[in-house]
Each structure stands twice: as structure tokens, then as C-alpha cells.
Design a protein that fits this description.
The longest helix has 4 residues, at 54-57. Helices cover 3% and strands 35% of the residues. The protein is built from 1 helix and 10 strands, in the order E-E-E-E-H-E-E-E-E-E-E.
Length: 155
């Protein structure tokens, strides 16, 4: 675990070592990933969000790939806490209107379709904070995937 030393000019971040167990391709900067408890229940393996685990996938959210791409079956760093400069986001699953837009401060959750992106959480009652692992740091109008800044808390 790499915890940034306290300083006045850079936001605090926590990075952890992980292994890309998604055999298909590399994990690239900005992709959110989940713990891989399907094929590698070792606490190190991460993979893409699984569509079938829509209700459970958010609970297995591990963090955002931030420093460099991680090749398939290789090790790399994953950001699990702090300000993140590039988080891939996508419109709400199935959105066809402005419901896919993201507002500053809005909670984001792993997309429930395997897209390697975060999507806005509908604000309704207690569900608003259910997936509060990532908070949008900027607004975005979304029709295709894009990267925004935000705050990550997956610890």
C-alpha cells in the first residue's frame, strides 16, 4: 500500500497493488474495477464489472486504475482513496435523454453493464448514497464514455 505523505500542494491518495485477472485485455487508466471473487478469491485479483452482479458488483468495487495500464495477468497500482484526475464515466445504463448527465458532487456507481465505467446514481431516498464510492468532481454531459475528475473511496 502506498500512502502519499502529507503535503500542502497535492491531494492525498492511497494506491494498492493488484493483479489484472481479466484475461481479455489490459486495464487502462481511468477504468473502475471490482475485486475478482469469481475466479481468483485471493484479495489481489481485479477484473471488469460483471453485469450479472449489478446488486453485488458495487459492493466489490476495488478502485480506479490511475498510474499506468496493467496488462492481462500482470500487476500494477490501483487508486482506492483520494482525488482522482481521470475516472471513466458513462451515461446511466439505458439512458436515452439527459438522465445520463452527471452533476458535480453526484454519487457514481460501477456501470451495471460491463463497460469499465462509472455511471450516475439516481437520487431517490436512501438509495442516493448506496454506491457513494466515487463522487463526481465536475459536471459532464454524457452520450459516450468520457473521463472526469472525482473523489474515490473504496477502502
Amino acid at each position: 500500500m502506498l500512502i502519499q505523505r502529507l503535503n500542502k500542494t497535492d491531494p492525498e491518495t492511497v494506491l494498492i497493488c493488484c493483479k489484472n485477472t481479466w484475461a481479455s485485455a489490459a486495464l487502462t487508466v481511468g477504468m473502475p474495477v471490482m475485486w475478482d471473487y469469481v475466479t481468483d478469491a485471493d484479495g489481489i485479483g481485479v477484473t471488469q464489472q460483471v453485469a450479472a452482479a449489478a446488486g453485488q458488483g458495487g459492493n466489490a468495487f476495488a478502485g480506479i486504475i490511475t498510474t499506468a495500464s496493467i496488462a492481462a495477468d500482470a500487476y500494477g497500482l490501483l487508486q482506492c482513496y483520494g482525488h482522482c484526475a481521470a475516472i471513466l464515466v458513462h451515461p446511466t445504463t439505458g439512458a436515452t435523454t439527459s438522465t445520463g448527465n452527471i452533476s458535480k458532487g453526484q454519487s457514481l456507481r460501477p456501470a451495471i453493464v460491463a463497460e469499465f465505467a462509472m455511471e450516475p446514481v439516481a437520487v431517490s431516498g436512501t438509495q442516493a448514497n448506496l454506491f457513494g464510492f466515487v463522487i463526481a468532481g465536475e459536471a459532464a454531459l454524457l452520450w459516450t464514455g468520457t473521463a472526469i475528475t472525482g473523489f474515490v473511496k473504496a477502502m
